[in-house]
């Protein structure tokens, strides 16, 4: 529904020119909770500002429902934005804030009061309608900002790190709340965050960005289980990287030889070469500890770190000392009896992990 085609954005010119977005292409579907995820400075806000129309692209185009948006000023686009700073008017009440935007659009009075009540109910703030916004909490201000942005019934809601100012517990609560709002209203959400857990838990699909480019687009599960390249595997979750030799590939199933001499199978995209040295990415929870001499890798336990829900085992692999981290869920009062310095084996699943694109 939102088609972003080869969009480039260059700030400045000549020597000082900076390419904030480099031929970015992505199609965001109707009714989707879509997330732009990436480290600070990778171009997330710039892409949102282009969709909103606060900036024009240097190259490429943006279509909404098949219609080219270029030349349409922000207020003419069926798009609204929620910023990190809620930007509420402190001298107005909650209800006045929610009604402000639609009043400016010239909607009739009767319609405005109806919409305001409806929006306040949607974000569960009806009981505070007459409170000044300077006298409500940060989480409540966030809800008012959401209600205000939803009031004109945009087709698309852009949310630029809207939860980052909230403390941990409130952020968790608002994550669920935002998901509920999205599915109840059916509005397409384009959500920006640098927090990988937030992206995985909330989104229908995620685009992982770095340095002005999209590195991978997929469902949270696709991106976590099958990261396409090292940046994605590293940025999202924890990953073990092993050098391995490619022995052959049939479709997406690859056969590899590890440094230990053992052979394993792993997933590899069709684009991966079928010979040569490659990098294998293995999630810490997708491996098991085994007695010495068993499994496909061997090493010495260097650290055992207890995290409550799980325990992390750090293994220095034989022959080179690469580190491998395993994560095992804890059972009540269970002690697996491992100690630092123990010699161990490492067992991998039938498919060991994902071969990364170079
Ligand atoms: P993010 O939101 O992912 O943190 P931004 O989109 O805000 O990143 O910025 C991407 C890059 O573009 C940054 O290096 C930033 O300094 C630069 N940038 C953003 N806006 C401007 C501007 N108006 N002029 C010059 N450089 C800018
Ligand atoms: Mg930003």
For the CA atoms, what is the radius of gyration? 25 Å
The CATH topology of the largest domain is Rossmann fold
Mean pLDDT figure: 93
Q: How many domains?
A: 2
Task: Tell me, briefly, the overall form.
Answer: globular
Estimated share of beta-strand residues = 35-45%
Shape-level CATH architecture of the largest domain: 3-Layer(aba) Sandwich
GO molecular function: ABC-type putrescine transporter activity; ATP binding; ATP hydrolysis activity
EC number: 7.6.2.11
Keywords: ATP-binding, Cell membrane, Membrane, Nucleotide-binding, Translocase, Transport
Organism: Allosediminivita pacifica
Which helices and strands appear, and what pairs or packs with what?
Layout: E1 2-11, E2 18-28, E3 33-37, H1 44-52, E4 59-64, E5 67-68, E6 79-82, H2 94-104, H3 109-122, H4 138-150, E7 156-160, H5 168-185, E8 188-193, H6 196-202, E9 205-210, E10 213-218, H7 220-225, H8 230-235, E11 240-250, E12 253-258, E13 263-268, E14 276-282, E15 287-291, E16 297-306, E17 310-317, E18 323-329, E19 343-348, E20 354-355
Parallel strand pairs: 3-8, 3-9, 6-7, 7-8, 13-20
Antiparallel strand pairs: 1-2, 1-4, 4-5, 9-10, 11-12, 11-14, 12-13, 14-20, 15-19, 16-17, 16-19, 17-18
């Amino acid at each position: 529904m939102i088609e972003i085609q080869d969009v480039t954005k260059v700030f400045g010119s000549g020597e000082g020119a900076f390419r904030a977005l480099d031929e970015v292409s992505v199609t965001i579907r109707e009714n989707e909770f879509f997330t732009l995820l990436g480290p600070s400075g990778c171009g997330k806000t710039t892409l949102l500002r282009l969709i909103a129309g606060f900036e024009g692209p240097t190259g490429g185009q943006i279509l909404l429902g098949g219609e080219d948006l270029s030349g349409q000023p922000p207020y003419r686009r069926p798009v609204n934005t929620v910023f990190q700073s809620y930007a509420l008017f402190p001298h107005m009440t909650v209800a006045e804030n929610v009604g402000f935007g639609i009043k400016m659009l010239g909607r009739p009075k009767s319609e405005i009061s109806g919409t305001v009540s409806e929006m306040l109910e949607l974000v569960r703030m009806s009981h505070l309608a007459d409170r000044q916004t300077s006298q409500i909490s940060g989480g409540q201000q966030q809800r008012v900002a959401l209600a205000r942005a939803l009031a004109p019934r945009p087709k698309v809601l852009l949310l630029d790190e809207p939860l980052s100012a909230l403390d941990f517990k409130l952020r968790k609560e608002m994550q669920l709340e935002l998901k509920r709002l999205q599915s109840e209203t059916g509005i397409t959400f384009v959500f920006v965050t640098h927090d990988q857990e937030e992206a995985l838990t909330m989104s229908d699909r995620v685009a992982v960005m770095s340095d002005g480019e999209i590195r991978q687009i997929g469902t949270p599960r696709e991106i976590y289980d099958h990261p396409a390249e090292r940046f994605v595997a590293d940025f999202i979750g924890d990953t073990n990287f092993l050098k391995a030799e490619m022995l052959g590939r049939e479709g997406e199933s690859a056969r590899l030889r590890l440094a230990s001499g053992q052979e394993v199978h792993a997933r590899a995209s069709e684009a991966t070469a079928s010979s040569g040295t490659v990098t294998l990415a293995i999630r810490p929870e997708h491996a098991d500890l085994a007695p010495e001499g068993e499994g496909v890798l061997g090493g010495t336990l260097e650290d055992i770190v207890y995290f409550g829900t799980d325990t992390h085992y750090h293994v220095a692999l034989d022959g080179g000392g690469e580190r491998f981290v395993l994560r095992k869920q804890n059972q009540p009062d269970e002690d697996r009896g491992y100690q630092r310095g123990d010699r161990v084996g490492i067992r991998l699943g039938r498919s060991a992990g994902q071969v990364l694109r170079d």
